[in-house]
Input
Amino acid sequence: MSEHHHKETFVTKYLFSQDHKMISKQFLVTGMFMGIIGVFMSMLFRMQIAWPEKSFSIIEAFLGPHQTDGVMNPDIYLALVTIHGTIMVFFVLTAGLSGTFSNLLIPLQIGARDMASGFLNMVSYWLFFLSSIIMVISLFVEAGPASSGWTVYPPLSALPQAIPGSGAGMTLWLVSMAIFIASSLIGSLNYIVTVLNLRTKGMTMTRMPLTIWAFFITAIIGVVSFPVLLSAALLLVFDRSFGTSFYLSDIFISGEVLHYQGGSPVLYEHLFWFLGHPEVYIVLLPALGITSEIISTHSRKPIFGYRAMIGSIMAIAFLSTIVWGHHMFVSGMNPFLGSVFTFTTLLIAIPSAVKAFNYVTTLWKGNLQLNPAMLFSIGLVSTFVTGGLTGLVLGDSALDINIHDTYFVVAHFHLVMGVSAIFGMYAGVYHWFPKMYGRMMNKTLGYWHFWITIICAYGVFWPMHFIGLAGLPRRYYSNTNFPMFDDLLEINVVITIFALVGGLAQIIFIANFFISMYRGQKATQNPWNSNTLEWTTPVEHVHGNWPGKLPEVHRWAYDYSKRVDPKDDDSDYLHGQDFVLQTTPLLEGEDPS
Amino acid sequence: MLALFYIFIAVAIGVSFWQITRIMNFRGIIATDDDNKKQGTYAIYFMVFLYAMMIYCLIFMNVIMLPESASFEGEHDDNLFNITFWLIGIVQFFMQFLIFYFTFKYRGKKGQKAKFYSDSHKLEAIWTITPAVVLVLLIGYGLWQWNNIMDLSNSEDPVVIEVYSQQFRWDARYAGEDNTLGFGNVNFIKGINTMGVDMSDKNSADDKQVTELYLPKGRKVHFKFRSQDVLHSAYMPHFRAQMNCVPGMVTEFGFTPKYTTDEMRQNPEVIEKTNGINKIRKAKGEDPYVFDYLLLCNKICGASHYNMQMKITVVEQDEYDKWIAEQPTLSSVIK
Output
């Protein structure tokens, strides 16, 4: 590939590029743009929760027809929580995270010239772009965007009589998601094929960095579960537009009985969560993979339990496809199913615990280089533990009855998949920014960004557990109609203030990102003294990644601080320095570990 | 408050700009020993903040929690919850300590060498098997309790009540003398027959439609849920009870009330929470709050989702008998 010297125009280089490095940057910037919208929405609806009757000029300015004198209407409140969820889960944490780092790292870390199909890769990005545009357009529909929650359960999402957002807004939501799923599937197939076929000489599966393992398994889960969401969405389109009754039955609304007979919303719930739950891991696993790589590199230590890490990724992936029913304990499905899903769900705690302990053991007796990327990875381990533990409460069907759909759930999943995954994404950006743009990000701003963000994340989501335990349901426009919740308002104000500060703090990151892109200090070839292959490529990007021959791999990715005498911690480094590139041949008699 | 908010925005933007100007004079870009020392110390500060917040919430937010379970079935829920919560609480405190203490303790220093330590089957076996054993116990207790709650087949002489949801209100129908509900379907909705009861069904005549729930203390209540339009969820937090209302099907749940409303109002936890609420309400000049059991909607169902509630009153059996006798039967209302 590198032998062909394409003449690159602006269009082929920056727009319709087939180079995985450019495509990854496109995913990242689009994801960041969507992220700004998603986070801004959450700030707006948090203001409504904390100050339900206050008038805000910012709400007047942004919500136009959907507000009265600076107070948002109930419909648009539901729309904001819906689109916030959709954007953050799919557009930021699926496409923005997986799309960016799978594209950037898979070819670079396995030693390939590019993705298996550069063209499909480009198509994947542009479908994602198109779906983002449609989702953004849906915000401007007269009756408001989709507003039946990010899970869009019918009949609410199927009947415009039930909520105005289920009209044109919902149609656009479905179209956007269908295109998004196509994009995700094309991308995932490409990742799988690339990992299986294009590994360079010596790069056996068990020498791959854990990032690649995570992206690989994530892509497999995506291919298994996303098509089910597509079919769920298609059947919903049929019910909405062609009068079928897959999900609807016996409905009386706006003074008339509708013709639907024999369907069940529970079917939709099954189909949705068959993707919806694995989706959590589609979001989280890449973040965990990135964290494994970064914690090891910046601790100057091999990742502890490499094989156990792969095993636990696989176990989590497998289990993730058979636990969807834990979202439906009180949906009316057979209680026996509830028992089965409780069992499988709580099993996930085992591989998750293995991962958490392995991260902590990797930190133990390390030589920790506390760069922003490292801090975000440590932050991820912290939020992953905090959020994961409450999963033991929610996954237990008997306990779930009373906290299902309360703020306890909101706190749990935001910590374990929202904050954790976004921390993984930030860690990845700080770590691989020099690879993407050839420049370094500013570390001082990185530190500010990290500490403000983690304090605010805990400030928002830790107290939120307790208002959930007080019985406060989620998705309530205002709690003023229930005197029993009056004592929660103060806590909600505190949460909102943390949320606003945390949201605004992301400006630091965005500024750092864009200014560093142009003014950042030039990067050296291997700024973090890392072992993996991407740091053997030149700083200036070339088509085909390596100017000459492809590198040959002789060892795993984690030979950090390897000693002459493995038993003696004081002995000298075997290779004279605390890292050994994967391309370095084994010395005579060296234990390949 | 509004002023406070604007001040916050101004401060945050100010801080951002101040920081962003510093970007012009990049110093180092990779963490030095000095940075490691600073950030490691901050990790300890953060750990202190985290512990302080966790402990503060655990102690001072106790008062806002739901009071003890008002149903017999819910006792085990509370029990299981406490066990689980203690367990995860201990693990949480222990793990967070390790994470941030290690960050501080092993911060990079000149001349410090990391330990080359890549595997230990013994350690891994420990932290695979320990959670597994603990989980077996949790799962066992949880499943036993789940089957307890969900099995409604062997309750003797239950009170059978249909709870009926629509945008945006609740209705209820008692089964009457025969303790059997007449058939209901949206096709029968007409005029004052708002719950769509089939009046040709012989079981329907003695059914009683009400807008407020009265439950007798100490008797199993067998709920059947129907929905008229979209998904709703009947959430009765004080009884540890919740079930979705699904259009096109009948879902079920049951529990046995343990305390009457009056008894619950005397419960110290309830008194403390009520006092707290009333202090806030008094400051705002609102009427004082009196504790009542509530049924609220807990599945997003439309614009007024946040305002869908029904009062539940638990009384002694004789009072319940008196109340139910006063309610008119459907056959006397729907002609």
Chain A touches chain B through 152 residues (CB under 8 Å). Chain A has 16 helices and four strands. Chain A has a mean pLDDT of 93. The CA atoms of residues 302 and 558 of chain A lie 5 Å apart.
